[in-house]
Queue: 2 jobs
Job 1
Amino acid sequence: MKFYTVEIEARRELGAYTLISYRWPGEKVEPGRFVMARAAGYPVTLDPFLARPFSFYDFEDGVASLLFEVRGRGTALLDRATRTVEVTAPLGRGFEIDASAGRAALLGGGIGVAPLKILGRELSARGIDHDVFLGFLDAGTAAVADDFAGASVATMDGSAGTHGTVLDAAPDLLEYPVVYACGPNAMLAAVKDAAGPDGLRQLSVEERMGCGNGSCNGCVVPVDGGYVRSCVEGPVFRAEVLAW
Amino acid sequence: MKFYTVEIEARRELGAYTLISYRWPGEKVEPGRFVMARAAGYPVTLDPFLARPFSFYDFEDGVASLLFEVRGRGTALLDRATRTVEVTAPLGRGFEIDASAGRAALLGGGIGVAPLKILGRELSARGIDHDVFLGFLDAGTAAVADDFAGASVATMDGSAGTHGTVLDAAPDLLEYPVVYACGPNAMLAAVKDAAGPDGLRQLSVEERMGCGNGSCNGCVVPVDGGYVRSCVEGPVFRAEVLAW
Amino acid sequence: MVVRERVTGVDLSVEMCGITLSTPLVPASGTLAKEALGEVEGVYGAILPKTTTPAARAGNPPPRVAETPAGMVNSIGLQNPGVERFMEDLDAFDLGVPLFVSVAGETVRDFAALCERVSEDGRVAAVELNLSCPNVEHGGLTFCAGPAAVEEVVTACRAAAPTKPLFAKLTHEGVVGNARAAESAGADALTVMNTIPALTIDAKRRSVLVRGGLSGPAVKPVALKAVHDVARTVRVPVLGGGGVTSGTDVAEFMLAGATLVQVGTASFVRDPVEILAEFSDYLREAGMGAAELTGALR
Amino acid sequence: MVVRERVTGVDLSVEMCGITLSTPLVPASGTLAKEALGEVEGVYGAILPKTTTPAARAGNPPPRVAETPAGMVNSIGLQNPGVERFMEDLDAFDLGVPLFVSVAGETVRDFAALCERVSEDGRVAAVELNLSCPNVEHGGLTFCAGPAAVEEVVTACRAAAPTKPLFAKLTHEGVVGNARAAESAGADALTVMNTIPALTIDAKRRSVLVRGGLSGPAVKPVALKAVHDVARTVRVPVLGGGGVTSGTDVAEFMLAGATLVQVGTASFVRDPVEILAEFSDYLREAGMGAAELTGALR
Ligand SMILES: Cc1cc2nc3c(=O)[nH]c(=O)nc-3n(C[C@H](O)[C@H](O)[C@H](O)COP(=O)(O)OP(=O)(O)OC[C@H]3O[C@@H](n4cnc5c(N)ncnc54)[C@H](O)[C@@H]3O)c2cc1C
Ligand SMILES: Cc1cc2nc3c(=O)[nH]c(=O)nc-3n(C[C@H](O)[C@H](O)[C@H](O)COP(=O)(O)OP(=O)(O)OC[C@H]3O[C@@H](n4cnc5c(N)ncnc54)[C@H](O)[C@@H]3O)c2cc1C
Ligand SMILES: Cc1cc2nc3c(=O)[nH]c(=O)nc-3n(C[C@H](O)[C@H](O)[C@H](O)COP(=O)(O)O)c2cc1C
Ligand SMILES: Cc1cc2nc3c(=O)[nH]c(=O)nc-3n(C[C@H](O)[C@H](O)[C@H](O)COP(=O)(O)O)c2cc1C
Ligand code: FES
Ligand code: FES
């Protein structure tokens, strides 16, 4: 896998999360696609060993941005990076957009809000009406919602917005012909359930990845009759495809 | 082994070598002692894995300095460090100093000049007369000699000073009651030969190290009847002890 | 082809089992998807897809990969579409270089049938027997059990594919004995080594994370020893691998005795183009051609 | 004692073979010199010096250590002053905690004589049999050869040291079979694992750098599997180790089934005080005592 060393254009904190942006000279970035990223690789270091997958948060005027939550060592090191990071080209299959389908609901859980920013931008650009619903653990992580104008917010501890899950903040999903969701797999399963079988229902899944380009078969999700790789056939799947 | 994260006070290039200094609150540093150093260790990284041994170049007013040559990955990363490095407390046995013994010759080969700066400072402080002879590959590496006032220089390619080895730049070593040398082991063996068996002849050796505190038995040098660890019984040895 | 410019002026070509390869690099089976082939044009002297089995295999449930210090543990479970679908799709792996095919069965008969099936196809230059996959509870595992099992499988495969070069891929455990057995049963070359059985634990959840095979730079010193030991024992050529990450690593494996070098896990975190370029730099500095390097330890 | 403050409020004590230890950490044999003991006061529940042999051993010529990705290869060759000088000097290892002594011979008789010699000394709490050192060409190596050899040595040592706990230290190759053999021959505990045979090459010089044993974080997933496999097979307690580098690693080995955890190579690059402090943090968060952790995988 080819990694590009890119300079960090900007870095800021959005509540509990960190946003970094870099110039990406390539094609337009489709919402829902992702990169493998790391603070540094060989020859600087072989540990941590694997790069980490991150959805694009935004892409505007040739500047791509990633929003991330510090969880373990890889994200801690990314958070410390001041000058450069190493990223792949955009990977995977993003969200399907169907301008004729009608109003869309966008649901994000925790750091799963990430791809909804760029998705919302694209929907707006195409004149597609959409509502954004974001669920968080607490007010600290919910602070990122300020970057989503008009979004409805829920927190598990009730410290901001509706008390409960993202589904508690959203109206009946069955009324939306299009539903997009990103968050922990458990949330996605709940959304799949609540959104019903009809219409365009798209879920961005989160699996451990080795390579990001289809080579390792590590990032699979269950589908009817087996498993498929979420890095090349996803990370965005039609809900009905996932055997959850 | 305990490592201390220390801030880099100053960093400059001395010809082909790099000098970094940091505040060391501990006891006075004895000439010939060394530290294990690295750009970063766990939790930042486990690769490169081992720290590298470096002699103290100088110690003045609580500021210690190391002079190093970029050879492989560990030294390349140290060379890139801008804010902090990780070092152990001073390790090993340094040079024996005998004020009553008389005039000393200090011989350094390449980056082996490192411990001669702090040694020269100590000898001067104690009023011990000494001459410094430094050998290098070429003028680029020889540039560090500017930091050794009055030193005689030789280069293998003749681009600076005497054409030849450090021994070609030095007078008959037999005339010196005290001889100190640091450099590649082959040079040390030649110095041992040239300096003869009498008087105080001290060589600072260079062996691959695992731990630096005597634990691994990795850094041994041959002595009569076996091997001894150069990190605790050295790195400075009386020449007659070494079974070279 | 971006590689070409960076590798001019050195002779990268090698020869093994009568096959001439433009470079000694080969992807390790199971680490290069057809979707990623475009990135590596010009790098590999041959292509080697993921192991195929008689019937389709769904593989193991996730999580299948876990990061470890300078490496990773995987438990894919030989997910593949089965040999028939695999052969239908074979042209997808055509990069204009020889194509090696890796097979694994659960019985000796399976292995032989697979060898017959794939070797009869003109597009297949050689067959690698995956005798060592640690993830298959029945079948695979038994074939690392010792020289007798190795000899039995290789003998059957030899008979089933009499015209094609046959490589036996071995784990590091008991590798020298297994290598001797494979050679005497007629293997044309030996692939050394596969992943090392390993386990990762999620301490926070107090549960097993992934039980599978360790690969990547962490295993390199173990693989180098296995290659060195085998190359000094057998006469047939060795495809060496395990943790190869840089051009210097390629050189180390060839010095240890490998004729071809497999690049696996490292290709997830580095561009193999760089590895070949670094290897070319090494050869240029050494003033040697790739083919001269095999076993050239002083 | 700097450690004390950082580890209060959790119960670090464990019990093994009737010995109570203040912490489950033990230095791995050959990785903690008496010169370095001052740095680790309060960290280890027992002290375990480098393996001693019947006569003094000069060890191997340098280079003896080589760095590898997240690890190192060593070829010390069991340098030690011989059992008599070792025992004379034993008080140097007195940190007020139990003292385990590691022994290795080249014959079964050697092993038994060593066990007799060291176990009769009141300062010795237990004896570890180094059955697995990969650096000794004659002797050591043969004792990893298989269950029969392991059984023979352990049986002889059991008879020679009937009153002291006896630990058999095993390599990962064939570890389950060897563990069963050691247990049935009377070992009171098993140490799993030693280094993994490995090789490093200096590509620039085209020469072997160090041929020896791989240790450090790189081997952790292999060691964890070995400990897990053995702990599920035998009834006797396990001293687990191989790559332990952090407090989380200590927890992982205990979860895999270890009662005590050995810290080796990592102590060259980290302060063991930190490892114990991290382990204490883990226990505090988990709301568990160290002794409860052994085998507590969900
Ligand atoms: C397609 C995709 C898009 C993602 N987008 C984002 C994003 O925009 N922002 C964001 O903050 N996070 C995102 N994630 C999750 C992110 O990849 C993990 O948080 C990150 O890998 C954790 O790495 P670490 O070093 O902090 O944790 P560690 O626990 O140290 O990681 C150890 C290993 O486990 C893997 N791992 C651990 N947790 C996860 C996880 N939850 N998902 C996948 N792999 C994991 C790591 O990649 C690494 O290989 C995304 C994941 C996927 C699959
Ligand atoms: C007591 C002592 C004092 C030293 N003082 C200095 C000094 O003041 N300045 C300086 O520049 N160098 C000094 N050296 C040499 C310095 O330690 C090596 O240049 C350095 O370890 C090379 O590391 P690397 O990562 O650049 O090379 P790599 O080749 O990447 O190192 C790989 C491994 O080999 C070891 N290694 C490689 N070359 C040497 C070598 N020549 N000596 C010892 N170990 C080696 C490394 O420590 C590391 O473990 C000293 C060595 C010793 C033993
Ligand atoms: C994700 C993954 C999948 C693998 N699948 C296979 C396989 O299908 N068949 C096989 O023979 N080896 C397989 N291997 C083993 C590799 O081919 C290789 O032998 C091993 O990983 C060691 O080399 P490396 O460290 O360069 O990866 C796989 C390895 C990985 C990491
Ligand atoms: C430098 C060094 C010397 C060692 N010497 C011995 C020894 O004398 N006896 C022994 O049983 N194990 C010895 N070992 C093996 C360790 O005790 C330990 O089993 C192994 O290194 C794996 O653990 P680690 O990865 O934590 O180091 C040695 C290891 C190293 C690195
Ligand atoms: S991450 Fe490797 S196949 Fe998807
Ligand atoms: S470096 Fe470990 S004993 Fe000297």
Job 2
Amino acid sequence: MSAFVATFKRDVALMWTGGGALAPVGYFLGATMLVPLAMGPDRALLEAAGPPLVWIAAALAVLATLERLFQADLEDGSLEQMLLSPAPLEMLVLAKGLAMWCVVGLPIALAGAPAAIALQAPIELVPAIVLSLALGMAAFIGVGLVGAALTAGVKRGGVLIALIVLPFFAPPIIFGSAVAVGDAVAAALSILAGCALGATALGPIAAAGALRLQAE
Amino acid sequence: MSAFVATFKRDVALMWTGGGALAPVGYFLGATMLVPLAMGPDRALLEAAGPPLVWIAAALAVLATLERLFQADLEDGSLEQMLLSPAPLEMLVLAKGLAMWCVVGLPIALAGAPAAIALQAPIELVPAIVLSLALGMAAFIGVGLVGAALTAGVKRGGVLIALIVLPFFAPPIIFGSAVAVGDAVAAALSILAGCALGATALGPIAAAGALRLQAE
Amino acid sequence: MSGSGPFQDKPSLRVESLTLKRGERILVRDLSFVAAPGAFVEVRGGNGAGKTTLLRALAGFLKPSAGRIVFDGAEEPSLTMHYVGHLNALKGGASVRAHLRYWAGLFGVAERDDEALSRLSLAAQADLPARVLSQGQARRLALSRLVIAKRPVWLLDEPAAALDAQGRAVLAALIEAHRADGGVVVAAVHEALGPAPSQTLTVGV
Amino acid sequence: MSGSGPFQDKPSLRVESLTLKRGERILVRDLSFVAAPGAFVEVRGGNGAGKTTLLRALAGFLKPSAGRIVFDGAEEPSLTMHYVGHLNALKGGASVRAHLRYWAGLFGVAERDDEALSRLSLAAQADLPARVLSQGQARRLALSRLVIAKRPVWLLDEPAAALDAQGRAVLAALIEAHRADGGVVVAAVHEALGPAPSQTLTVGV
Amino acid sequence: MLTYLSNPQRFMAFSAWAAPLFFAAAVIALGVGLPWSLVFSPADYQQGETVRIMYVHVPAAWWSMGVFAFMAAASFVGLVWRHALADVAARAAAPIGATLAGLCLITGSLWGAPTWGTWWEWDGRMTSMLVLFVTYLGYIALWSAIEDEEKAARLAAILCLVGAINLPIVHFSVEWWSTLHQPASIVRSGGSAIHPSMLGPLLTMAAGYLFLFGALVMMNMRAAIFRRRVESARARGGEA
Ligand code: HEM
Ligand SMILES: Nc1ncnc2c1ncn2[C@@H]1O[C@H](COP(=O)(O)OP(=O)(O)OP(=O)(O)O)[C@@H](O)[C@H]1O
Ligand SMILES: Nc1ncnc2c1ncn2[C@@H]1O[C@H](COP(=O)(O)OP(=O)(O)OP(=O)(O)O)[C@@H](O)[C@H]1O
Ligand SMILES: [Mg+2]
Ligand SMILES: [Mg+2]
């Protein structure tokens, strides 16, 4: 079993015993639920303003899950062991990101369907919304890895990572929201795919660089 | 120096060296910034839907700060020492909550002014919004203490605490949003004050009970 | 303890047919003992035998499945005992001295940082954040709570872990002085701490 | 090591005028030594002297301020050495056996859980989550990485911490067997581990 | 020049006279530029007197991006060649850049009120400027949250390099989104599209900002180096 597969399996197992997708999906649905509460019962308003907010809920849900990703590894010594592996740290980080996408990203994308419907998105857009969320989650996670690695040594890093990462979440949110309101869907999807690819390719490299420093 | 004061001082100092209010306020402003990004540049829509979303951003910002509050204490053994103090645990929890309100809650309430303006709230409502946020933060923190205590033993508790706590955030968000759109402001403010009082009185008691079980 | 004299009330620790469980496993069965003022009880047992479990029960963190734990002649357990466990209870961002001050407040006693620092030879590290302390320095800082809190009953879980020879000598001297003042020491150890125990409990089978 | 024979290539560890700093403090100054196959280097020094710092530098976590660390006759450092530090690198939610499997994958070696479990006397705990292990059991699990990873150079930081007498005997036997296979052991200790060291380095002044 | 200055000793000697010199240059440029732009330059035929905000706004916008580029370059040098001074420079520039970004946002929204009839609009440029501002805040927060300076320097450098991706987005946002904000009219291919009577004061102000930035960065760096010297002296004292 390669180090990549071992890391992926372990992270999936740990996230699963830690409650799996239940908590992030619950957070996501909970946050979307707050929107109509805050906006009041005006149906027309919700119809106009609601669907894009699915993206904010999704961004914040993934953020909440990300933050302890490397902090725990640093505190309990697991990071040192990852550095001792013959596999490059970049690969291991990628494996962790992939695990997170499978256990958290994909379920949130799927939960995007009921959430979008609850926020009055047109039903025919739902498949595109789910697809866009799946891509957006990959972009969020790729960027989030860097934020998580940079703040791994900071206690209460939860809000710091948000501050660092949110500016980079802007492009996927802008184009993702375009999908949610049915605006130039195909173009937006291809830009999202680009974001996802870029973040997945560059994120682990920057994150691994930061983690090497954290271990000092 | 009493145990209450010592705990308050220590927590303020620790939060301060950990970056102080910069990060939570940044998170809050960052999250409000995402709203128009997602909703697009339609001014009228934002005016109608925007201001209440300040409350969602505030709720999520405080949530992100809360989650490691007791988890760190449990993991490093500080909780055991708090149990050995002659002061009742409820007092110590209250001190921690108060510290958090001062270092995080109040600055977020103040940052509510620019956030509300950015989300197109009428300028004359801004003082009421800031006041309502200050009260709402107290309510959020009171409830959040319980959630943080219940999830202290759970790795990656970040999303779990959200799941537990968000339902209780609903009343302050509903009445706070009413303030943000200028709906029956005085009544809403007094209800918020009630929420704040209730949460501050009951939260530490429930949280302390949960923490005693965590230490086992 | 130097400069403050023996304890006013000298409580003793009485344990009556104590049974402790973790999960489904019974670790301590029907244990009874008394530790009178001046006693030094050594708790022995292999890895996983239940030493930590016993000490945590004595400190009140863990509810016994059966039996009682009583501090005779003491008003209140929290004023009577102190516990130094496997975890050091340090915050990386706070300085050594800030910890000592905080503990004085937390335990409701007068601040005596300098005494604690010199007893544990931590004076040179007083202003360093706990994060940069070495393993042994961190352990010394945790042990300095004994000097600060000044409770008559000490519950120590492998107190000498990570200490060098000088540190172990300091610890032995602290224990001797504490016993001379009429205090009680219960310590889980794998190797003798120095002072001859007045009693040895063996947990596990 | 039992069942797998001595190492093919027997690397030795060579350190040349190494200088290490933490913050502004110089902890190790101009240290040079060679540990040939079969060597057992004991690193001594008081609390805070710099033992952990030295071992972490040897493991490659810490960049030296000056000097070099070379593994002669080895292809790649990550295939040559293994480090067991103060931290056990355990995840509370994963079982003991899951840790062993993961490490085998991480270090790119064959799975040998049962051998590791029996060597470290952890067989009874194989299916427990790491969260419930006692301090000594957790340390044994961390040490079992040495059996799993099977690297020729071992860097051990207070490996006997929290071990009972049986655990220390097991550790001593592991070290002896490793040396017999031509491996190198560098261990920071406060008390002798058992096997006679071939060399003692003292850090700090 | 840069390798020459990479030695802290030489930097201290250099900045001891260069910082006051830059400061003097800034005073002169701003002393000429402010009255020129705020009083003597012509009012715009469309916007009237409010156009004068431009002379504060546009240089702030330019240099808030320029400072980030400077920080990215310094971070790269610090990361690759481990020049401690480059780290110090990046850190010293951040609060200045953040202030400039804040100034750009504030003057922009002050300007927007009379010209577009709104304080704030979520168009591409304003949004991306806000994003840049938040990036500055994140960079500063990361620095202040990590106590070990050396580690903080290198981690912040990674963040800065990643954040530099944002710069082209800020610049091109106007073309991509094409909403309210003016497209580039001065720095663009095909020559400047602004009247020379406005270009003069604008460039003077921009030069003034640049000199002020140079002076402030050097002063911040000197303060940081002094602080580090005091700390290391104290650490050596503690060791003895
Ligand atoms: C808060 C609102 C605003 C923000 C964040 C903002 C941001 C910026 C930025 C970043 C630039 C530099 C563009 C570049 O060179 O790449 C810029 C330039 C400029 N801005 Fe604004 N701006 C705002 C409001 C306004 C308003 C209301 C006006 C006038 C009606 C205005 C007029 C200009 C002009 C004339 C330039 C120079 C364009 C050039 O030649 O490149 N801005 N602004
Ligand atoms: N939920 C559980 N199920 C089964 N066994 C458990 C459970 N929780 C704890 N244990 C076992 O209980 C014992 C706890 O022992 P404890 O920590 O008290 O040991 P100790 O004597 O302090 O050992 P050490 O010397 O290693 O510190 C361990 O053997 C552990 O495996
Ligand atoms: N940033 C810093 N500033 C000053 N001193 C530091 C800093 N970081 C670490 N130190 C000091 O460096 C030393 C690190 O020692 P190290 O952990 O290597 O000791 P050790 O020999 O392993 O000790 P122990 O036996 O206690 O584990 C400690 O004395 C610590 O106080
Ligand atoms: Mg134990
Ligand atoms: Mg050490």
